[in-house]
Design brief:
single chain; 542 residues; alpha/beta; Rossmann fold; GMP Synthetase, Chain A, domain 3; four-stranded mixed β-sheet; globular
């Protein structure tokens, strides 16, 4: 329990909090019945009210039902921040099925694993995914693939989307109308999301985020951030990521807050939409806020409506927080969470500047959310006193139920329902939590988590590569960036740029190394293990 809760939070936020209902679907239906004409989605000149959002998601649910989707099934959604993405998620939940969020930038090999492991019955995607889908092994291809245009439901003729001449399958379903025959209200223990997160010891694992996890987050965020019917949400974070899904989409639908949908992040576009629709709340990676700072066309008046701003997914430098406050009069509040905690679990209270650790210069990531317990644990799992560095362990109503079809990893990562984060930090005597380092070798670039071995596996596919090691190195914009070190087979030749192109063709753009250094030999231990720690110098070739 945080001993300074009242001083940090104020009397308006209880230490313990429970959800109003067991699912976001139930909350949304309640809000829609209360005020059907209240705006729910804003998208480039189009505004859908709650009743319209309910009607169109019903129509999409009926279309999915006709394609065999029912309670317990999985539906993969690979879309940007568009109305169809919101409608698709809500439609899947209305059927009692589970959403599998998929990054639209994924290539065939990444897509194949998520689709096959989840057993998704349907994939909803942008037409740009068609080449990757056509290259999938037969065992990975869902029974139905529905394509939809990014500009669907947008009133503005011009927008941040390319020409799209493929038929819009989802729009045709929406035009058919109707409602599902077997619409349900999911229970709190049923899976809402199967959110894939990478690890250092194997392929991506699907964290099972329940409807109860999401309903708790809606209630906790409303209380903690102080959101009410006068607020609205700018979707800075992508909706295919746990942050966007929970702290934009679920929060907006469950709390009855209008969502200003941005398609994909672009500083000028986001500033223009903010000026147009006047949202008050957002959360995004620090790189998004750096991009807004660095865009000359973005002025203070453009972002003037944003009074409640959070940043998570990557370390937040205190200097950037100061720069943003000086430029726009907005203080960025740090937040920390994982896919396994269904987004934020620790954050800086609104209106309270985060302290900076004097010894390291590290900005505090915040204090625990209501009903959340954070412990710092030692090597043997023992609780450590204030100031001692150890692993962050988190327990609370937003901790995921475990990993999909992976009981061994679930037991290892969720002993007694407590998540062992793999992140290292400490807590001070005031109850503030500081993140020191990651226990794992995970790279976090612009909020995206990258598994080094996955990139190494791709490099090893190149015929010239003998050995490969991938590390994360500091980057002033992305927080970290990916750097690869390779040695070549005897007699083989390949340039760093050639190897980068090889990776770009097989991986999402953010995973491809920004730099590849060709070495004579890679450093190894006496047992022959490549020593990544010796490759992490900022510039090994000055």
């Amino acid at each position: 329990m945080n001993p300074h809760w009242r001083r940090l939070y104020g009397a308006g936020v209880p230490e313990e909090i429970g959800p109003e209902a067991g699912s976001v679907v139930e909350l949304f239906r309640r809000r829609a019945a209360e005020r059907p004409d209240a705006p729910q989605l804003h998208y480039f000149g189009t505004t859908l009210d709650r009743a319209g959002t309910d009607r169109l998601s019903d129509a999409l649910a009926a279309g999915l039902e006709r394609r065999g989707v029912g309670s317990g099934d999985r539906v993969a959604v690979a879309l940007q921040n568009t109305p169809v993405c919101v409608l698709a998620v809500l439609a899947v939940w209305k059927l009692g099925a589970t959403v599998v969020p998929v990054n639209p930038m994924y290539k065939e090999r990444e897509l194949a694993h998520l689709l096959s492991d989840s057993g998704s019955r349907v994939l909803i995607a942008h037409p740009a995914a068609a080449p990757a889908v056509s290259a999938l092994p037969d065992a990975s291809v869902p029974g139905h693939v529905l394509y939809t245009r990014t500009g669907a439901l947008a009133a503005d003729a011009a927008g941040p989307w390319p020409d799209e001449d493929r038929p819009d399958d989802v729009r045709a379903i929406l035009d058919e109308g109707g409602a599902p025959r077997a619409a349900v209200t999911p229970g709190p223990d049923e899976p809402a999301l199967l959110s894939y997160t990478s690890g250092t010891t194997g392929p991506a694992k699907g964290a099972v985020n329940t409807h109860g996890n999401l309903a708790y987050q809606v209630a906790a965020c409303r209380a903690w951030i102080g959101l009410d019917e006068t607020d609205s949400v700018l979707t800075t974070a992508p909706l295919f990521h746990i942050t966007g899904l929970v702290m934009h989409l679920a929060l907006g639908l469950g709390a009855g807050l209008p969502l200003v949908l941005t398609c994909r992040f672009d500083p000028r576009t986001v500033a223009g939409l903010t000026k147009r629709y006047r949202p008050t709340f957002t959360i995004g990676s620090i790189t998004a806020f750096i991009a807004l700072l660095d865009e000359p066309a973005v002025r203070e008046r453009d972002l003037g409506s944003l009074t409640k701003v959070l940043s998570g997914g990557a370390p937040v430098p205190s200097a950037t927080v100061r720069r943003f406050a000086d430029a726009f009069g907005v203080y960025i509040h740090n937040a920390y969470g994982l896919t396994e905690t269904t987004s934020a679990a620790v954050a800086v209270p609104l209106g309270t500047p985060a302290p900076v650790d004097e010894a390291s210069g590290t900005l505090a990531i915040g204090v625990p959310f209501p009903s959340v317990r954070v412990e710092i644990r030692g090597e043997n799992g023992e609780p450590l006193p204030p100031g001692e560095v150890g692993e962050l362990a988190i327990a609370g109503p937003q901790v995921a139920a475990g990993y999909w079809r992976n009981p061994d990893q679930t037991r290892a990562s969720f002993p007694d329902g407590t998540l062992l984060t793999g992140d290292v930090g400490f807590m001070d005597r005031e109850g503030w939590v500081y993140l020191v380092d990651r226990k794992k070798d995970m790279i976090v670039a612009a909020g995206y988590k990258i598994w080094p071995r996955e990139v190494e596996d791709v490099l090893y596919e190149h015929p010239a590569v003998r050995e490969a090691a991938v590390v994360g190195v500091p980057d002033p914009y992305r927080g970290e960036t990916v750097r690869a070190h390779v040695s070549l087979r005897p007699g083989a030749a390949a340039t760093g740029e050639e190897l980068r192109e090889h990776c770009r063709a097989r991986l999402a753009v953010y995973k491809a190394p920004a730099q590849i250094l060709v070495e004579d030999e890679l450093p190894k231990s006496v047992t022959g293990k490549i020593l990544r720690r010796e490759l992490r110098e900022p510039d090994p070739h000055p």
